[in-house]
């Protein structure tokens, strides 16, 4: 589940309880407004879109339009600050809890620039981040600047040591910063997993919902996190509607 | 159509409401205050549905989180101005905005949801320290103590020499 990770500006949380137009089955998902016309209430996002989000839902809510004395109105509590830092576990696929794909280098790189493994996949990871978890460069991370489909990944700033055969790496499609063009698009999008509770770390860099990557917690295959701010918050200054 | 509904909100007739105004309309006002619902009933309903509940300083003493299997909502404050346990909104007891009251508000979240949406500060510290140790290749303090103990015991054993037969 995505969790709260503080606010960019500091200070206390602001919680609002909103009516829902679609059931929120899980806590810790980014609320959105699309997919429900007319607007009966807020809804979970899709995996790729979270338009006019009011914030992060921190409990669940069941939508019902049925009349009845015992009818409990569908409500969800939202952490509504636009500068909320949302912390989501990176998943290695669309399904929740998938471990990130492990790269085991198959070709020695004496300049520290090339990680070779067919497991790099076909999705374009340029502007993502690759980090070493085993070998001489352990705990070092670099921005991916070239991706050869199902062959290798290249970095521009060399790893400090040679990359030996068998050295292990992980990667994600995110990086901090960038202007959104094809080669620097790792900082502007996060795609959600099927239940919207985690970040799909296997998709091409620059795809997914509009979010602003704030920080990367680069650990192991099942405990690495991406922290992001809501890129299309309902109450943000750049929202035009 | 009455005259009231014919009056446009903005300069242009039919301009409509913005998303932000629609969102404000979707905010729930809290419990009914027409005498048909007490604060206790409202909070009990929220707790039964495992919802987040929020109280001002005056009302929070009436809520027993342990009894309801709730705990305080925590969101780290990166500036350290607050403790991270401060949360503002509409008080579920009195209906006041807690940011306008002295002491602010406190939100309580169910135990089963807490681990999903909050970072336990103690657990986060434990993990951070473990990660720092791993990154530095260092051992824990207790591991160093054990190593020194086994080392000294080993030396004592060596000095003692072989056992007489």
Radius of gyration of chain B: 29 Å
Order the strands across the largest sheet of chain B as they lie in space: 1-4-2
Strand content of chain A: 25-35%
Number of strands of chain B: 4
- SSE order of chain B: HHHEEEEHHH
Order of helices and strands of chain A: EEEEEEEEEEEEEEEE
Rg of chain A, rounded, reads 20 Å
Number of domains of chain B: 2
Which parts of chain A are unreliable, with pLDDT below 50 for 5 consecutive residues or more?
A: none
- Tell me the overall shape of chain B: elongated
Number of helices of chain B: 6
- Content-based structural category of chain A: mainly beta
| Average pLDDT over all residues of chain B | 82
Give a structural overview:
The complex is a heterodimer of chains A (241) and B (165). By secondary structure, chain A is mostly beta strands. Chain A is 0% helix and 32% strand. Chain A has a domain at 103-229. Chain A has strands at residues 3-7, 13-19, 29-31, 55-57, 75-79, 84-91, 103-104, 114-116, 129-134, 141-148, 152-155, 168-172, 189-190, 199-200, 209-217, 225-230. In chain A, strands 1, 6, 13, 14, 15 and 16 form a 6-stranded mixed beta sheet that branches. A 6-stranded antiparallel beta sheet of chain A has the order 7-12-9-10-11-8, with no helix packed on it. Chain A starts with a strand and ends in an 11-residue tail after the last strand. The relative contact order of chain A is 0.20. The model of chain A has no long low-confidence stretch (mean pLDDT 91). Chain B is mostly helical and 165 residues long. Chain B has 2 domains: 29-119, no CATH class; 122-157, no CATH class. In chain B, 39% of the residues lie in helices and 9% in strands. Chain B has 6 helices and 4 strands, in the order αααββββααα. The longest helix of chain B is centred in the C-terminal third of the chain and has 20 residues, at 141-160. The model of chain B has no long low-confidence stretch (mean pLDDT 82). Chains A and B meet through β1, β2 and β5 of A and α2, β3, β4 and α4 of B.
């Amino acid at each position: 589940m995505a969790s709260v990770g503080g606010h960019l500006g500091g200070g206390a949380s602001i919680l609002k309880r909103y009516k829902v137009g679609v059931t929120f089955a899980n806590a810790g998902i980014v609320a959105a407004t699309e997919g429900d016309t007319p607007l009966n209430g807020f809804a979970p996002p899709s995996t790729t879109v979270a338009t006019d989000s009011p914030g992060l839902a921190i409990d669940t809510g069941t939508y019902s339009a049925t009349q009845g004395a015992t009818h409990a109105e569908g409500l969800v509590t939202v952490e509504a600050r636009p500068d909320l830092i949302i912390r989501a576990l990176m998943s290695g696929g669309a399904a929740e809890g998938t471990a990130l794909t492990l790269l085991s280098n198959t070709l020695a790189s004496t300049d520290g620039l090339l990680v070779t493994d067919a497991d790099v996949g076909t999705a374009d990871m340029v502007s993502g981040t690759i980090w070493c978890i085993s070998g001489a460069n352990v705990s070092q991370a670099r921005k991916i600047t070239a991706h050869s489909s199902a062959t290798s990944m290249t970095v521009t700033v060399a790893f400090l040591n040679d990359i030996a055969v068998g050295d292990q790496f992980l990667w994600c499609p995110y990086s901090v910063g960038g202007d959104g063009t094809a080669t620097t698009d790792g900082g502007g999008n996060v795609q959600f997993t099927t239940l919207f509770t985690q970040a799909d770390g296997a998709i091409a860099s620059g795809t997914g919902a509009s979010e602003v990557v704030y920080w990367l917690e680069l650990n192991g295959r099942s405990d690495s996190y991406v922290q992001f701010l809501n890129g299309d918050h309902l109450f943000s200054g750049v929202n035009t509607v | 159509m009455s005259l009231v509904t014919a009056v446009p909100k903005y300069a242009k007739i039919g301009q409509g409401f913005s998303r932000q105004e629609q969102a404000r309309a979707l905010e729930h006002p809290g419990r009914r205050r027409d005498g048909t619902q007490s604060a206790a009933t409202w909070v009990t309903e929220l707790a039964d549905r495992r919802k987040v509940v929020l109280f001002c300083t005056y009302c929070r003493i009436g809520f027993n989180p342990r009894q309801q299997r709730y705990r305080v909502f925590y969101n780290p404050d990166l500036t350290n101005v607050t403790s991270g346990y401060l949360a503002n909104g509409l008080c579920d007891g009195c209906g006041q905005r807690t940011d306008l009251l002295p002491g602010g508000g406190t939100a309580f979240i169910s135990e089963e949801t807490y681990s999903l949406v909050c970072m336990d500060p103690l657990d986060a510290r434990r993990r951070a320290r473990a990660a720092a140790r791993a990154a530095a290749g260092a051992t824990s303090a207790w591991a160093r103590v054990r190593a020194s103990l086994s080392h000294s015991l080993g030396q004592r054993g060596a000095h003692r020499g072989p056992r007489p037969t």
